[in-house]
Specification:
Elements: H1 15-21, H2 26-29, E1 33-36, H3 43-49, E2 54-57, H4 65-85, H5 98-122, E3 125-126, E4 140-146, H6 158-171, E5 172-178, H7 190-200, E6 203-209, E7 220-226
Parallel strand pairs: 1-2, 1-4, 2-3, 4-5
Antiparallel strand pairs: 5-7, 6-7
């Protein structure tokens, strides 16, 4: 059975947040990128508007903009209630409080919804999901994945993580994954295992500290590059 819309909890982030989460430089923004598990982020819309290139992949893209919008409306209050119940888990600095968080996230998702129909037709949004991507080897310069791998270590197996990372390394010259903590705020037990395996396979798998920190201590990414 395929993905059911009722299983989706949409939550979108902006280009500015992507830049901090993934330590994206001006030069990085000129590279051909794939955003794996992009969801309703405004990253693609904003990148396209400024003339840069990115393809976003997510199983949610099988649904229409209207269906996704309805799901956002259904889940938004649930997410915000969860945030309010766990205020101490977050750093309220760049985002001052839950009200501002809601405004920022909703603005990003509205940008996505406005762009999605045109972007899907143009091929910028692709109905696909890790660990299988419909692209030839090394199609992209850089693959990004946020708030999926490591974040859901309790739901997604080590084998899924291994296969997903291998697939991103297949389609892109470089991979960046953020953050490295579970939803609970605990370190993912998969990180040291996968770092070791990637090193043995000839990759440089380096943990880097980034400027972005909303989840407490969630300010690190994993950068993976071939040594060859």
């Amino acid at each position: 059975m395929g993905l059911m819309l009722e299983q989706v909890v949409p939550w979108g982030r902006s280009l500015a947040e992507y830049q901090e989460m993934f330590a994206l430089t001006s030069a990085d923004l000129q590279r051909h990128m794939i955003d794996c598990g992009g969801g309703p982020a405004s990253f693609n819309a904003e990148m396209t508007k400024q003339g840069d290139s990115v393809i976003s992949c997510d199983p949610i893209y099988q649904f229409s903009a209207a269906e996704i919008a309805q799901r956002i409306d259904e889940t938004y209050p649930v997410i915000m209630s969860g945030v309010a119940a766990n205020l101490e888990s977050y750093r309220w600095q760049n985002i001052a409080d839950p009200t501002q968080l809601g405004n920022v996230r909703m603005a990003a998702m509205q940008q996505f919804l406005a762009d999605f129909p045109t972007g899907f037709t143009a091929g910028r949004y692709c109905f696909a999901a890790l660990p299988t991507l419909p692209f030839p080897d090394k199609t992209f310069d850089l693959a990004l994945c946020s708030h999926l791998l490591f974040t859901y270590s309790d739901q997604l197996s080590l084998e899924f993580h291994r296969a997903a990372i291998a697939e991103m390394c297949r389609v892109a010259q470089e991979v960046r994954i953020f953050p490295l903590l579970k939803v609970s705020g605990e370190p993912s037990p998969y990180l040291p295992i996968l770092q070791n395996e990637l090193t043995q396979q000839g990759y440089a798998a380096i943990v880097q500290t980034v400027l972005y920190e909303f989840q407490k201590n969630g300010n690190q990414l994993l950068q993976i590059q071939s040594k060859l």
